[in-house]
Design goal:
It is elongated and about 85 Å long. It has two domains: 166 residues, no CATH class; 104 residues, 3-layer Sandwich (Rieske Iron-sulfur Protein). By secondary structure, it is α+β, with helices and mostly antiparallel strands. The strands form two sheets. It has a six-stranded antiparallel barrel. Strands 5-6-7-8 form a four-stranded antiparallel β-sheet. Bound molecules: FE2/S2 (inorganic) cluster (FES). The site of FE2/S2 (inorganic) cluster has 12 residues, from loops.
Length: 291
């Protein structure tokens, strides 16, 4: 079943890709111009994507429209429809903030998801308008009931594709979700060192620590280290640049505090794993993940 649905979604690529790229350009420009608003809607303050939190409400509330119609409560159905549409608009706003920094297959799926949700929203608005004017205790017309059922089917299809964006393409999933938290000291191997064997100062340096890649920044005698893979979507922090006491990812400009990996600017909503570094007996350095 999933394979068939995936083929169906892939078949939309001829219109989804150019349409998504065009919408993304505008969306990205809007949210890039106001980072605090984007961070708020991404959920950096919560440490969790807000869109995922907000999407459950409209789906649950709009299902009640069908339930209230079936049990003959047209006024309650009308209120549920109104609240559901407002909740959908809120979820859409958060989704657009995430979409501004979404690439590749995730963007294609997110475009399809957003299009289905926009169609569902229009159907619900039309359905709500069709219900206006009737007596509050009169049952909803057959057309209105059928309309809300069709809208809910489109909404469910959009939710399915939205699930794909997260569970299949990994969008807004913490890139360090499965990383171990071992604190054993291991030898650190910087990709480059100065002529005297020291780590160059003032710019990010990539290093190996066992199977992990780190980014190192030397600050006097102190060496600050974070995992090199950006928690947002995997960008290489060692190719980013320093901004004060933070490092900015080269892909979507998330910023992490070098001292402890705390995310201070989105679109990432997750902190970055930070490492302690110390000189090793016999020369060189060793590092371990901060507790
Ligand atoms: S990969 Fe998106 S901000 Fe780093």
């Amino acid at each position: 079943m999933a394979r068939w649905l995936t083929r169906l979604m892939d078949a939309q690529r001829p219109w989804v890709k150019p349409f998504g790229d065009a919408v993304h350009r505008i969306d990205h420009a809007i949210f890039q111009a106001m980072p605090p608003v984007r961070d708020l809607l991404n959920g950096r303050w919560l440490g969790h994507p807000i869109h995922a939190v907000l999407t459950d409400a409209p789906i649950g509330i709009l299902f009640l429209v069908i339930v209230f119609d079936v049990v003959g409560q047209p006024a309650a159905a009308g209120w549920a429809l109104l609240v559901g549409v407002l909740a959908m608009a809120g979820a859409a706003l958060a989704g657009l903030a995430d979409y501004a920094d979404t690439d590749g297959l995730s963007r294609e799926r997110a475009t399809l998801h957003a299009t289905l949700m926009a169609v569902a929203l229009v159907l619900y608005v039309v359905d709500g308008v069709a219900r206006l004017g009737g007596a509050t205790d009169a049952p909803a017309s057959t057309a209105a009931v059928i309309g809300s059922v069709i809208a809910f089917l489109v909404l469910s299809a959009g939710a399915f594709v939205g699930g794909d964006v997260v569970y299949v393409t990994g969008n807004m999933v913490n890139r360090h979700a499965f990383r171990g938290t071992g604190t054993k000291w291991l030898a650190l191997e910087p990709a480059e060192t100065g002529a005297d064997g020291s780590i160059p100062e003032g710019r990010p340096i990539r290093a190996r620590l066992g199977s992990n890649s780190l980014v190192l920044v030397r600050n006097g005698d102190a060496i600050l280290a974070l995992h090199d893979t950006c928690a947002h979507a995997g960008g290489p922090l060692s190719e980013g640049h320093l901004v004060g006491d933070t490092i900015e990812c080269p892909w979507h400009a998330s910023r992490y505090r070098l001292a402890d990996g705390r995310v201070v600017q989105g679109p990432s909503v997750y902190d970055q794993p930070a490492y302690e570094v110390r000189p090793r007996d016999g020369g060189g350095w060793e590092a371990r993940r901060q507790a």
